[in-house]
UniProtKB/TrEMBL annotation, chain A:
GO terms for cellular component: plasma membrane. Coiled coil: none annotated. This is Monosaccharide ABC transporter membrane protein (CUT2 family). It is found in: Cell membrane. Pfam families: BPD_transp_2 (PF02653). It is a multi-pass membrane protein. Keywords: Cell inner membrane, Cell membrane, Membrane, Transmembrane, Transmembrane helix, Transport. InterPro entries: ABC_transp_permease. It comes from Aquabacter spiritensis. GO terms for molecular function: transmembrane transporter activity.
TrEMBL record, chain B:
This is Monosaccharide ABC transporter membrane protein (CUT2 family). The keyword Transport applies. The chain crosses the membrane at residues 23-45, 57-76, 102-124, 131-148, 168-190, 220-240, 276-295, 301-319. GO terms for cellular component: plasma membrane. It is found in: Cell membrane. Keywords: Cell inner membrane, Cell membrane, Membrane, Transmembrane, Transmembrane helix, Transport. It is a multi-pass membrane protein. InterPro entries: ABC_transp_permease.
Length: 319, 324
């Protein structure tokens, strides 16, 4: 029994006994495979992976934020703004580097403000980021004047539609960032602090850790990833649009919740989030193949989240 | 620095008078805004504009008054805007199908309340944190409404029904009377009834409230049901005024509603705030947005300004709490 005290000192990924999300994923895949013959084709499966990457880029930092008992409702609006900044910069300067720098810069700025509001002013995260959501949405309307930014050059579109060594670029980008987040969460001191921030903030204070800075860093990471996702989003829709990613933070939160990261206990699981992202991707793809309108897909995702949260609540009450 | 010599027993009496002081500050702020706008713009003081401000404030207040009770109980309801969309579209369908504004009104109020009850059940029985449960509900409602409408618009309602949104009585818009009615009812409920006081108690300390024998779960469901019902009221007035229903009808109203409650002095941590404060908060926010409009500021700035106001209001509340 007392061995637990020892193993707790040695932080490592804690796997739930039954990864419920894996069962949901397999079940959904089986159902869709039975209903739609196209579902299991190589083309469609690769499609699901490619289309899930943007969501994965948002859901991974969202996992870390939720692990600190936080939330970032501004992510979709920040992604939209970053995508517009990227599109405007690339169209006017023809420089991918400048565009990406602008997008990531916007993300970092919003992440800093979010983190500062949450850590220094101690404003509850859901309302602080609801406020910055409004700010980012307003700025998106202002910089774009409510219009789409068109004339995206070919080299930017290539980022999403191109292939390197036979593998679609988005999958490579997604895999690289997944590896990065895995290392960050499980093999660095920063990762240890993030896991401690959710469960036991007082212990960190007593240990002399400046956790406020860690919290700001976590939100800035979220903003920066929104900037990276803006690159793929802009390349994918071949435009900058003032409402392009409104609400996308919800899909990210859905994936995190499905993946088994707890909103109340701060323990998270980056592989679970990957499974959650794939589950949302499979759900959307399967419903698409069945010609279900996207509005109904939104409702289905919302219902799935509520169920996932309910199950999470059940698990936490049964320690 | 030094220890306060206040005794715990004196707090409940101070509590109310502090609320009154807070509201007086906010009324002064609203008055100051009026003076500034009257000086800076020519059209602010026109009867038309004043009535316009009151009518817009009334729409915001319907939504914000229900939300006030939720925030008093220590929760948050992010689904109110999406609830307006669904309720308005359902009410519009029923009016079109039956030709009866009464049945349409019942449909709008009923669907709003039903959504609220679902929120309450999720929060009270399933123990899902309110902001995330109602956020999930937001997207469920959003999806359902868009699916149901399929991009269509329903417009053209009987004149009798449109009166509740665009009618006048003694030269004052009908929604303003409705606002004053709900203000009186809400204030009475929150301050003068046992249930209202129990909601304050739940927000201040849910564990203590439960130990005192307050049926916390039932009161929470009631609070969310109220919030949903008020979204239903707002949807009907909105519908009657616009004379058309679309899927996105209430989407932009969630953030302003939260802002109005927080400007009005309610604390996100529960147990502090008044319905009258929210009324003043709705008035202040409407004055700010109206002023921006009169000064020909692009409407794109409105979500930005509202977002900043939300954060500022919470921050000021936190400073105030730290000082006491």
């Amino acid at each position: 029994m007392s061995d637990h005290a020892l193993s707790a000192a040695q932080p490592r990924p804690r796997l739930p006994a039954i990864p419920g999300v894996a069962i949901v994923l397999v079940a959904l895949a089986l159902v869709f495979a039975a209903i739609s013959p196209n579902f299991l084709s190589t083309g469609n499966l690769s499609n699901i992976l490619v289309q899930s990457v943007i969501l994965l880029l948002l859901a991974m930092p969202m996992t870390l934020i939720i692990m600190t008992e936080g939330l970032d409702l501004s992510m979709g609006a920040v992604l939209t703004l970053a995508s517009l900044v990227l599109a405007l910069t690339v169209v006017s300067t023809q420089s991918l580097v400048l565009g990406l720098a602008g997008a990531v810069g916007v993300g970092l700025a919003f992440g800093f403000v979010n983190g500062w509001l949450v850590s220094s002013l101690r404003i509850p995260p859901f309302v602080a980021t609801l406020g910055t959501l409004g700010v980012a949405q307003g700025l998106a309307l202002i910089v774009s004047d409510g219009q789409s930014v068109v004339g995206i050059p070919r080299f930017l579109r290539q980022v999403y539609s191109g292939e390197t060594a036979g593998i679609p670029n988005p999958i490579l980008i997604g895999a690289a960032f997944y590896a990065l987040f895995h290392v960050l969460l499980y093999h660095t001191k920063f990762g240890v602090y993030i896991r401690a921030l959710g469960g036991n903030r007082d212990a960190l204070t007593l240990a002399g850790v400046k956790w406020q800075r860690m919290l700001v860093a976590v939100y800035m990471l979220g903003g920066a990833m929104a900037g990276v996702a803006a690159l793929l989003l802009t390349a994918r829709i071949n435009a900058g649009h003032p409402t392009a990613a409104i609400g996308m933070e919800f899909d990210a939160i859905a994936a995190v919740a499905l993946g088994g990261t707890s909103f109340e206990r701060g323990n998270g699981w980056i592989f679970g989030t990957l499974l959650g992202v794939l589950t949302v991707g499979v759900l959307r793809n399967g419903l698409n193949l069945m010609a279900v309108p996207s509005s109904a897909q939104v409702a289905a995702t919302g219902a799935l989240v509520i169920v996932a949260l309910f199950l999470d609540g059940l698990r936490s009450r049964k320690p | 620095m030094s220890m306060s010599s206040q005794t715990a027993g004196a707090t409940p009496r101070l509590h109310l008078s502090k609320d009154v002081v807070q509201v007086i500050y906010r009324l002064l702020a609203a008055g100051l805004l009026c003076v500034v706008l009257a000086v800076v713009t020519d059209s602010f003081l026109s009867t038309n504009n004043i009535l316009n401000v009151l009518r817009q404030a009334s729409l915001l207040f319907f939504l914000a008054s229900g939300l006030t009770l939720v925030i008093l109980s220590g929760g948050l309801d992010l689904s109110v805007g999406a609830n307006i969309g669904l309720s308005a579209c359902l009410a519009a369908t029923v009016i079109k199908a039956t030709g009866s504004p009464v049945l349409g009104t019942l449909a709008g109020l009923g669907s709003g309340t039903l959504v609220g009850v679902c929120n309450g059940l999720m929060v009270a029985k399933l123990r899902i944190p309110s902001f995330i449960a109602t956020y999930g509900m937001l997207w469920v409602l959003h999806g359902l409404t868009y699916y149901y409408m399929g991009g269509e618009t329903i417009h053209g309602f009987p004149p009798g029904f449109r009166q509740i949104g665009s009618g006048y009585f003694l030269g004052i818009p009908i929604p303003v009377y409705l606002m004053l009615g709900f203000l009186a009812a809400g204030t009475f409920f929150a301050q003068r009834t046992v249930w209202g006081q129990q909601i304050y108690a739940i927000g201040a300390n849910p564990v203590a409230a439960r130990l005192c024998g307050i049926p916390v779960d039932r009161r929470l469901i009631l609070v969310y049901a109220f919030s949903g019902a008020m979204a239903g009221v707002a949807s009907l007035v909105f519908l009657a005024r616009l004379n058309s229903a679309e899927g996105d009808i209430g989407e932009a109203l969630t953030l302003p509603a939260v802002a109005a409650v927080l400007i009005g002095g309610a604390s996100l941590f529960g147990g502090v705030g008044t319905v009258f404060g929210t009324f003043v908060g709705a008035l202040i926010l409407t004055l700010v947005l109206n002023g921006m409009n009169l000064l020909a500021v692009n409407a794109s700035w409105q979500p930005l300004v509202t977002g900043v106001i939300v954060v500022l209001a919470v921050w000021l509340d936190m400073i105030g709490r730290r000082r006491t």
